[in-house]
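Re: that chain you flagged

S.,

Sorry for the slow reply, it's been a week of failed gels. I finally had a moment to sit down with the sequence you sent. For the record, here it is as I used it:
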Amino acid sequence: MTRATDKLPTGFGRLWTAQTVSSLGDGVMHGALPLLALTLTRDPMALAAVTAAATLPWLLFGILGGALVDRWDRRRTMWVTDLARAALLAIPVAAAALDALSITLLAAVAFLLGLGGLLFDTAATAYLPDLLRRDPALLERANSRLRGAQTAMSGFAGPPTGSALLALGRAFPLLADAVSFLLSALLVRTLPAVPRPVPEARESLLRQARAGASYVFRDRLLLGLALRPAVGNVAFLAVETVLALFAHDRLGTGTHGFGLLLTAEAAGGLLGAGIASHLSRKLGTGTALTCTAAVEGLAILGLAAAPNPYAAGLALAVCGAGMGATMVLGPSLRQAIVPAHLMGRVASTSRMLAMCAAPLGAVLGGWLATTHDVRTPLYAAGLLLLAMTAITASMTSNRRVEAALRAAAPPHPASGNPAGETGPLPTPPAR
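Prediction finished late last night. Pasting the structure tokens below so you have them in one place:
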């Protein structure tokens, strides 16, 4: 483990700055894209198509994207992808300036930006453990800072900035996002190079992708880490689908009040990301993950029973804190225990499972609200989260976590196997 005097390397500061700038651009687009689409059409299906296009790449190419990242230089993948996304946004900027923007073009751009995000995020996830020498404590600190910056930029600063820029003209939020990608690319280009993993025996891309996915499903700890966000997305999307209606009909909030509820959740997320490392040190990573998942479930049940907006805001803040801590601890542990040459595939498989689960949650929430009551999806989501916590508690226990960290630790030089050397695709140890 890292000594208290150890610091994050200088290169991490540039990576943090790059992702902070990029998150601000993402927040700008998150706030402006729905409003921008609304200036072009009032068709709900067309508006939904633009939103869905951004997530479609994860469903279609998630595992294949991870396999490609494991073949390519991670740093180069990041800066080239950001440069390509900046260049791509020049098309809708020009179209907006010429008053030729269309829903079809917006959907296509959203899809390609989502594809770029898949490659960048997966490469960044795989690059970070190499930069930080796979040190679990450093990874938790780094992911806490990255997660905090992402929440602040995409959750607080970005959306209102995007709305304000849209008031100046359709091209302005698109141009701002392009500039953020360009700045990120320039910063990532200056990051220190890390050794590339030893390539595996020549296999087809599909076979390597399937091997990476099976690695997750054969390892109980990794499977538990993947199930948490997947099941969590079912629950959270069920809540998100009816939250505005619940806030309006049951809590009596208007548009401003609903925005404050979302702000409370984001503020809780910042707090959770900040205390994640402390929880890990005090409770152990496995127990901390179980506790944060239980907190999320109980907070959603509290939201369902909330008698007024103040209680609902508190419940959302507590839920956000649990989510923020979970999203630091889970990825940090995965980065510390997964072999370098598998990191891209393991990360993309986990992310794809979570993305595939989201539509199911939205359908579940809408169906329960229609057939029963607007509170029913919230109660169902809370109970689902608590059931998931009970099922995965033994899969991500402190004992399994500690065994996995010992197995992933670099071998002693006397063993004859130099640290960092990788061979053929390993079979995960029974944990």
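What I noticed first: The domain at 204-409 is CATH 1.20.1250.20 (Growth Hormone; Chain: A;).

Talk soon,
D.
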